[in-house]
Each structure stands twice: as C-alpha cells, then as structure tokens.
## 1
Amino acid sequence: MSYCEKIKTDQVVCDEIFFFEHEEDNIPVNFIDELPPESELTGTVLVTVLECEVVAEEFFTVEVTFLLQKELEIVTPEQQIIPLEFVERFQEEAAFRKCFPTDLELLDIDLDQLYCHVVHTEAEDVFNLDTAAGTFDENLTIELKLKLLAKVQEVVKRCPRDQTVVLEVNQQQ
C-alpha cells in the first residue's frame, strides 16, 4: 500500500526582468524664494511594489503599482539643510515576452491560479537641481524581476511505512 499526500505548490509559468522609467521635470521647491547657486540635492528614495496584477489577453501583462518614498534634502553652500519629503504612487504596465496565455491550457492551469512574485527590485534615481528656477528634475529607472506563478495542487507519493526507517538521534561525546 502506498501513501499519497495532496500538497499545494507553486509552478513557474514564466519569469522576466522589466525596466520602468519614471521622469518628472520642473518639480518646484515652492516654499523657498531663492536657492543659492551651488546648492546640492541629496537623499534617499525607497521603491516598493505595492500591487502586481496579472492580465491575460494576447500576452500576459502585469499592472504594477509602485510606492516611492523620497527623503531628500537641499544642502546650501553654507551647509543649511532644507528637507524635502514626498510620497508618491504610480502605476506601470508591461507584457511578458516569453510566455503566452495559450500556454495555460497545456499546463492545465486556470487564469485565477496566477499571481506575481517579485524576485528582486533595483532602482536608480538621478536628480538635477536648477537653483535659478527653484526646481529639480528626476529620472527614476526601476529594474523589476518578476515570476508569474500558479498555485497548483499535486499528489505526492510517499514511501510505504514498511519501507520507512525511524532513526534515533544520539549525541556523540
């Protein structure tokens, strides 16, 4: 007699690396009358994937919602620090190029079993401060590696009990 166990597991349908560009020009620094020349813009930007939805039409498409948390500061030549903090959401859409919805039938998978899995996120954000205009430009590039996974139920055969050995653990001295 063999023993079987039903388990839910993830099956990779496809994976891909996407690049998203997010540019903003002439972002005003509203509360400052005049920025001293040679001021610098520094800080950090945290990029988080909030949502990722799979859409199947001719291609698999993902709709990704990003959250950007920007903690920036302008440092004047006199070392005065002017903090700038922003929180922003934006959405991007991209198509998988290596797999297609028609593959689901071959894999015996339904569309509602699919979900996104973020493997890794990398980003680079470049700022350009225009002290004369009191504005700055931003050019954000996000690299996002996604796997399209399906939750599937599998039947796994386990060894029969008469072919199984239980070992006692002894501590060696």
## 2
Amino acid sequence: MLPALAVMAATWFALAALATPFDHDESQYIAGAYFSARLLIFRDFLYLQPPLHAWSLAPLACLFPSHMVIAMRLATAGCAAAAILLLWASQRVAGISRISTLIATLAMAGTAAFQFTGSVVRNDMLPTLLVTAGMLALLHALRRERQVWFLFAGACFGLAIASKLNFIPIGAAAGLFLLLGRGSYRIGAALRFAIGGLAGVAPMILAWAFAPEAFLYGVVSFAATGPFQWYAVNGAAHELSMAEKLGDLLKYLWRGPALVALLLLAAQAWIQRRRERSQEKALAFWLIAGGLVGAALPTPSQVQYVMPLLPPLALGMGLLLDDAGRWRRGAKAAVAALLGVSALFGSLPAIRHVRAMVRNGSPMLAASADARWAGARVRALTGDDRVASLSPQYLADSGLAVDRRFAAGPFVYRTGWTLDIARARRLHAMTPALLADMDRDPPAAILAGYEMGIRKLPLRPDDSLIAYAKARGYRMIVMPDGVGRLYVRANYVLGRPPAD
C-alpha cells in the first residue's frame, strides 16, 4: 500500500505543480532562491522570510538556470509527497491501523491548504515536512524511550521555524508536552529537545549575524507592519480585524476535512474528558493546540497558514478512527465518508487546474517559455541583460540579471513611504522614491503589468515603474501572455550609449 501511495502522491503533486498558475506571493520566494544562489541573504539583498527555504532551493537556481521555476515547483511537490509518507509512518508508529492511517492521511492531504502549498513555490510545505519528521521522531521516542530521538525531533522543529515563523507555536507545544508530560524522562527529554531546537534554528541565527538590521526588518518588522499599512492605504483596514481573521480561518479550515476533523476531535475529547489519554493522543492534542495558534497568528489570514495544524490533526484523526471501531456499526464508515467528501471539496481547485492543463497546456511551462522569450528579446535589442521588475518570478528563467533591489517583489516597494531613503539603500530595497537611483546604471529592460491592483486592493504598484520607463524612452513590447509589458531600452541597440 505504501509504495502505491508514494507514487500516487508524487504524480498528483507533480501534475498540480505544472498546472497551477503563478501565485502572487511566489515572487519573493523564487527571487529569494534565485539571489541566494549568487549573493548572501540579507547582507546583499532583502528577504522577508527566515532563510532556510531560500537556501534549500538555491542549488536548483544554479542547476536549472533556464527552468528553475519548474524545478522549484517540482521540489515543493516532492516535499508534499514526502510529508504524506511521513504522516503515514507517524501513525503506524503510533500503533494506528492501516485503514485508519490511510483515511486520516488522505483526509489531511485533501485539504485546500495542503493541495495549494504542495503546488506552488512557498515556504509552507518544507516546514510541514520537517514538523512531520519531528512528530515521527517524538513518537519513536515515546515508544522506545531512546533519548537521541528527542534531540532529532527538536532539530526538525527548529529547522521548521528557520523556514517559517508561524511554526514557532507548534514547536513550543512539543517542548511543553515533554516538559509537563507523565514520563520519568521528561526533564532530560525536554532538555534534549531544546538543544536540538537550537541547532535547528542555527541557520536563522547565522543569517541574523550576517546582517542584523536587514534580518530584523525583513523577518520581524515588515511582517508586523507592512500588511497593515498596505491594507490601510487601500481603504481595506477592516479586512484585518480580529473578527475578519477568525472568519477567514474558519473558511480555510472548512475547505477540506480540517474543520470536520477538529470538531470530531473536540467532541471526542469532551466525551472522554475523564479518561486518561495515551501518550500518543496527548501529543496529538498538544500539537493541535500549537498548530491552531500558529494558524491564527499571521495577518492577514491565508489558506497556507493552516499548515502547522495538519500533521498533528492527521495523527489525532487516525487515533479517533481506530477508536471508532468500538462505536456503533456504521459510525466509522460514516466518518470516513464525511472526510472523503470534504477532501474532494478541498481538492477541487487543484483538480480544476489539472483539467485546464489537459485542455490548454501547462501555465508554468508557458511562463517559463515566455521568460526565455523575454531574455532573448532583451539581449537581441540591447546587448545587455540587466532587468528590473516587481514580478521577478516571470523573469527567473530568462537568463537575465534581475536587479537585486527588487528581490522582495512588490511587498516592500508598495509601502515604500514607510522607509526613509537612507535606510532603504542600506537594506538594498527599492521604493518609488528611489527609482531615480536606477539612472546611474539604467536597466536594459523593465517588466511590468502583473501588479495592477485587485478589487480588494486597487492600488497599482506597477504604475510608478511604468511611468519611470515611459519618461526615459523605453520601448514597450507586449509579453506573449498578453498581460506583461516589457519596456526595453532600445537605444542600447548596436552598442550605442543611452541618450539622456
């Protein structure tokens, strides 16, 4: 059963990775890996996340320079398939039956959050894989009481935090479970877990040591202020209220079996509140609590932030389904059917993308080809390869040299008024007030058109970039996708210097 599950998971997520169009947020993650292959993160370019994810994908930018986006998508798909296998292994180590394990694993894989984050280049699936590995290590440790497993578990949770900060609460919950648990080994176990955790977050500490100011701004300050400022200037500050956040969180849990699983586990916990829980069940509840806190922390709420909750939720559901064997006849089948229907609902967006790919071709292969087309056009017209864009993901496969000041995509740029000019220069960040800095060494081309506002957030960050290009006589060429606008400094042709 396990080999078949592995093949099915890898095949499905590879298809979904090729079929899912670009997500807006991928700009910073693809650019982070692209620049990490060439420069030192934070010191040489600004990044808005912990460093581990960018460092883990950086080799792909070197190995596949003309197809790095596809390679990164498929690497994410591989992480998703590996996480599913570790979810299976975790439940089996916990003593859960094969059928309950299969149902619980497929249920969590069928959530919209898992389907989405397994298909795009984001820093959510890697820490999910690491947390699942850490959970497996803890279960091994509880079963065998071998102290080295606690050390390994802590390292896994620490590495997850070095990839994504909203995994901090689930790591803290694991540590508290060990510290407050029933086992006679709990103090030593918690200490080993903490030592492993410190080793796991070492990449983050190293990145901070390279450039403390840029690290603290990118990883802490911007996340705490940037979204609020952007929504406020768009007249959408109310979207970030606590009531809206909780409503969004429920909505994302409802997209798939996560909400159903939470309600079932809560009901079981209430019914069995006077019974002593097994170590495995206690671990699941501690980690579910931590995962819920992690899901609720980021602002604004997004479907991907549910990911810390899913591994322990799968463990809890596996245990519950095994308990269902003692329920009245048909109860387990009814729960399995409910989970199956909700998993199908959670997978519908990915299914639609795959169906569209079968009819119209892969949007990712098309985007990669468009990038190479843009690279060839820019080099032919200018003899140069330096480009600027708030959408660097569309240029990653072009072979062109993207301006490092655009490494953060549109995110810092669109609230650029909050950064004074001197600090923005120190951070290697581009803001509208700093566009004139490009005049010292003008880019050969500027790609725009992908940051033109949405209904909820109507301001158009690309407008100022387009105005810059027009004011300096760049020639506009429509990208093959009909959306992008490639502004080329055509007076570079035949080696003539630009006319100022």
## 3
Amino acid sequence: MQLSTNDWFSILPVLILSGWGMVLLIVELFVPKERAALIGWLSMVGIVGAAIALALLGGPAISGFTGMIVLDGMSAFIGLVGLIAALLTVWVSLNYNRDRRIERGEYYALLLFSTSGILLMAQATNLIVVFLGLELLSIPLYILAGFARPQPESEEAAIKYFLLGAFATGFLVYGIALMYGATGTTDIARIAEVAQTGKNATLLLVGAGLILVGLGFKVAAVPFHMWTPDVYEGAPTPVTGFMSVGAKAAGFASLLRVFFVGLHAVQTDWIPALAVLSALTMIVGNVVALSQTNLKRMLAYSSIAHAGYMLMGLAAGNRAGLSAILFYLLAYAFTNIGAFAVLAVFARSEGEDQTFPQVAGLMRKQPWLAVAMIVFMFSLTGIPPTGGFFGKYYLFMAAVDGNLGWLAIIGVLTSVISAFFYLRVIVDMTMREPEREMPNGLYPALAATLVVTTLGTLVLGVWPGPWLQMAQAGLGLFGG
C-alpha cells in the first residue's frame, strides 16, 4: 500500500498528537518525578501543533486512506473543541496533580492519546475507523479515571468505566457487523447508497440501533448513563471535565456521520427513536440532579441532561440542528471545563470536598472565583448573555423547524427545572457564611483557565453569529 500526500495530510493532526505523546513517554523517563509538571508544559507543544495543522488544512475537504478518513470543516470544528478541552485540562492539571500528589508524566501523554481519538472519530467516514477512534479515545480515559490511585473512589471509577465501556463497545461492534451484513460495506457513504434502495432495511436499522447504544454510552444518554455519576465523582476533577466534553464531542461527531449521512434516506424510521431518547435524557438528567448533594455528581447528571439537548438537534433531522450541536459543543466546552476548574481549586492532598457547603461564602473570600462560577451556572441553565443560552435557543428552533415542537417544550421545561440546582450553587456562594477552609489564591495556570473559559462563555453569548456561521460552514459534507 502506497500512501499519497493526501493520506498524510488527512491524518496529520492525529499523527502530531499521538506522535508527541510517544515522545513524552520517552522524555518522562529522564525527568525527575518532582518535576513531572515539565511534561505538562511540553504536552502543550503537541496540542498547539495539532491546532496549527487543523487551521492550515481545515479548508477544502481532504480525503485519505481510500476515503476512510476525511479532514473537512466538521472534523476541524470538532477537533478544535477537543484541542481546546485538552489544553484547558492541562492547565488545570498542572497544580491539581501536585496538590493531590498524583503528579506523573504519563498523565499528559495519555491525555494526548485520548485527544487524538477525538480527532480520529471526528474524521472517520468508515465504521471500522469509528471503532478504532473510540478505542483510542476510551482506553487512555479508563486509565486517567483511576489516576488518583490508591484512592478507592478513583479506582472504583476506573473499573466501572472500563467494564461498562467494554460492554458498550461490544454493542457497537455487533451493530457494525449487522450494518455490514445489510449493506456489504462499512463505508458510510456507500451505506447511504444502499439505504436509499431499501435493501435489508430491517437488518440495517437493527445494526443502527446497536451502534446507537455504543455511542449513546459515550455521550451519556439515558438509559446508557448509569456509569456517569460514579465515574465523574471518583475520577480526578480535570479528567472529569475533559471526559464530559471530549467524549461527547467525539460521540456526536460519529452520530452525525452515521445517522445524518449514512442513514439519511431512512430518517423517518430513526427520528422518532432519537426524539424519545432525547426527551428521556433531558428529563432524567435534570430531575435526578435535583436530589444531589455532591457537586461533581450534580454536574454528572447535568452532563446527561445536556446530552439530551444535543440529541434534540440530531432528532430534528435538519442542517440547523446539526450546526446547533456544533455550536453547543463549543459553548459546553468552555462552560463545563470552567466549572470543573473551579472545583479543582479546592483539591487537597487528602482528597476533595465536593459537597455544596464547600463553596458556601465563596463570594466573600474569592469574589472573582465566585463570579466565574456564576457565569458557568448561568450558561448551563441557559440564561443570557452566555453561550449556553444561544446554544439552547438554536437547538430549540431546530426542533421546531423539524416538527418536534413537543420536544422543544420538554427542553424548555427541563431547563426551568435545572435552574433550581444551578442557582442553588449561586445562592450558596453569595448568601451563606463560609463553612470550610477557602483557597488563599489561584495558581497562574488555573487563573488563566478561568479567564479563558469565562471569556469564552461570554463571547459566545454576546457575539454568537460568527461561531454559528463557522459551525454551519463545517457542514459542507452534509446534505438535507
């Protein structure tokens, strides 16, 4: 097999990330353990390099490896979200890992490998590559979830995530096998051609349902969400933030290609199922979050609910819904990583206090930290002027345009429910007396993370137009 220039260019960002990750593993051998943060700073070189490659190559679509991989506008946009999440996670991790005494250089190499999985899933136009990207994303995340060993909570998070993730991957592979049996191919574009003929439609839809199970686990959609609260609670906080954004971005990238491209001809068969899945995910995520007393578990159920909002865009079955998903992912990346960065401030060597009293009185002790958290809670609720507001607005409008007004109404009502537990955090920060020891100051890298995430959340709310246009431009591959 001879590789062309297009083959190399199409996968260049993935090669930069994974190659630099392997370099870091070698460099880590010669770096003293007490200076492991140096590996974190070096990891940024790979992330920035991949971002430059995406910026230079993310114009006209570049297809490689006989059409199995494509670097187009959508994959560049999803890749941008993944790289932003990775960079911000590195910044949060630098001091968090030291405070928790889990500072090891391989942490950052695993983060780069997982990010390369995000990019590979976004570029996959073949179901085999979707599977490879999913494994490249997931296996490092299994290890990162248990990185705070020997803490029982972290080890429990890793084993639960691994066992359930492997089980979900089995569904995905079986679904791929059934779709191959129905169409004779694993290429998504050729699957679309066979789907138009109506040949083996039942077998095709059964395979699509199993793929939905596998990817639904990755995006934490109901009823494939049971792993989420325990894993989010036990994993190191920066890993939780990265997981909440990166896994969703990769999962929705594959869902868009499989359902909107490969199964576009039979969308009348899968739209009702996705609409019901979206409604259940929004309802369960928001209602169960009401009873949570742990901030990370509350944000875990919040993450489930936001998967439901994004599924609404896919169920709408139109280009407006797809561009709304991309915009929402970008807004969610800034918002959620920012919220977990605030929680990371409270990390101590003996563990983390993740209960609501931990943030009580934060406005009096650390007003800028409290203001940042208020912005993030407003965005998750969908209150202007934040990116979360316009993200939900675009999704609701897409649902209405797709004749799913009832689903948009459920989205609005569940957003009202979510205001209770998001605003509860704000009330605790501003109206209660401090009950715990407060951080005295912020490390520069963590402060930079909070500045970038806060500004990103606000810019997307005040100036959403160009970013939505960028998301729309990224859908050149998609019809409909």
## 4
Amino acid sequence: MTSEVTLWLTTVATVEDGERLSKLLVENKLAACVTLIPGGKSTYIWDGKLEQSNEHLLLIKSPARCHEALKKTVEKHHPYDLPELIALNVTDGSIPYLEWVAEATL
C-alpha cells in the first residue's frame, strides 16, 4: 500500500492559483488532499538571469494509478510555462491515512 502513494510538489505565484489547482485536482479525484503552504521564496536561474520569486507550495497526495492524469492536469492548468512538478514516493506512513488516499481518488 505505502509504495502506491506519492507526494507531489509544485509551486505557484499566488494563493488564488494554488486554491484553483488544489480544487481541480481534488474535485477530479486525482488527489485525495492538497495542502497549500503560503509564503515561500524561490531563487533560480531563468533565461540566464538570477531570479527570486515569492511562491506558495502545494503538497499533493495521490496514489500511483493517478500519476499520468495528475501530471497532464497540472501541466495543462498550471499558470507557469514550465511548472515544477516533483514526485516523492511514500515509503512509510499511517496505514489508515494511506488507505484513505487510495479510497478518496479514482
């Protein structure tokens, strides 16, 4: 069960974008839960220039069977040209919670 759950990370520029994307993923049952953490600051190189941006982190909890649809949905509806989308496999956790993630999604 635990190897089937993934924690996805993405960032957005506004809380409104984060709320919109979170609702889309949960309403379409691609994620059981999305946690929006406001107030981060990212530092990166873009188009050869050092950038710093205020961003908000989304923690997306989803089972493996939703991966392809989740990726396509985020890529289609994310406001960035190149959205960060990183998957971390869950190797352990609360079994009842991980079962809920599986039951709450497609």
